[in-house]
Design brief:
The protein is an alpha+beta fold and 281 residues long. It has helices spanning 2-69, 79-86, 124-134, 172-175, 177-223, 238-280; strands at residues 98-102, 108-110, 142-148, 151-159, 165-171.
Length: 281
């Protein structure tokens, strides 16, 4: 019963050491990866947003130049001609993007959805440009982020010499798809790293705990009187080797004293037995 209790205590010590060591490594890696993701993801989204807006502005300028090369205002052009020019224009990686053209008084002149042609523009950002044109001011080509019917969108716009407003628009969801994929890849990499560190932590903890277990076993046997019991520990850790050498040195120095105590105790027992025999006679 005592032996079983002793084994349980040893096992408990080993498990606690390994669990503490591995837990510390896993938590440290998890926190480091979490901090890296929290600090990187917002920055990456900001960078992607800025690049997307610049990209849309350049596309709008290109479409504006093509519109000017046509030599007539969009209102005078055939829908088929405008559709051939802009119908297939898409931002790379954003299939829902498209081009539309608005007159300086806010009327839709071209849109992939023909039903919208002739209707007033609904985009608040484009309405603001229309107001600027009405006031005699021509805004510089630019790109903006705005909300439309609950969705966040990006739009680049350019104003032609005829004051037609050429707009290239795209959904933020598609623009940030790359950033979201980076997050997913980051999470997968983090999980892999945590698993690798857990394996490494397990190996290192065994390298530490196994020699210590043998040392504890040896000390327990010495405490039970097995003074000559060797402590054989093979460890790659310098500290464990030094601890083993120190225990062996202590045992070596105290072994003669222990032997002398045992001898004296045996002599006392013999004397007591001899006296008892003498008294009985």
């Amino acid at each position: 019963m005592a032996k079983e209790k002793k084994n349980k205590e040893k096992k408990g010590i080993k498990i606690n050491l390994m669990a503490t060591f591995m837990g510390t490594i896993i938590i440290a890696v998890f926190v480091a990866v979490l901090i890296a993701l929290l600090s990187t993801v917002p920055k990456s989204k900001d960078i992607i947003t800025e690049k997307t807006l610049n990209y849309l502005e350049e596309m709008a300028k290109t479409c504006k130049f093509e519109m000017e090369a046509l030599g007539q205002p969009a209102e005078m052009a055939l829908y088929s001609d405008l559709d051939n020019m802009f119908g297939e224009v898409k931002c790379e990686g954003m299939p829902s993007s498209y081009v539309y053209i608005v007159s300086k008084d806010g009327k839709m002149l071209y849109h992939p959805d023909q039903e919208k042609i002739g209707n007033p523009v609904e985009n608040a950002c484009v309405k603001a440009i229309v107001e600027e044109l009405s006031a005699g001011r021509i805004p510089a080509d630019d790109a903006v982020k705005y909300e439309y019917k609950g969705a966040i969108k990006y739009a680049g716009f350019g104003i032609t010499k005829k004051q037609d407003i050429v707009v290239v628009t795209a959904d933020e969801k598609e623009a940030l798809a790359e950033s979201n994929s980076v997050v997913i890849r980051g999470v997968i990499i983090a999980i892999v790293i945590i698993i690798l560190f857990a394996v490494v932590g397990f190996i290192i903890s065994r390298m530490i705990s196994e020699p210590l277990k043998k040392i504890v076993d040896g000390i327990n046997k010495i405490s039970q009187g097995y003074i000559n019991e060797p402590i054989n520990v093979n460890s790659s850790l310098t500290e464990t080797d030094e601890l083993t050498k120190f225990i062996k040195k202590v045992v070596y120095e105290y072994e003669p004293k222990v032997d002398k105590l045992i001898q004296n105790e045996n002599n006392e027992i013999k004397e007591e037995m001899f006296e008892k025999i003498q008294d009985s006679n």
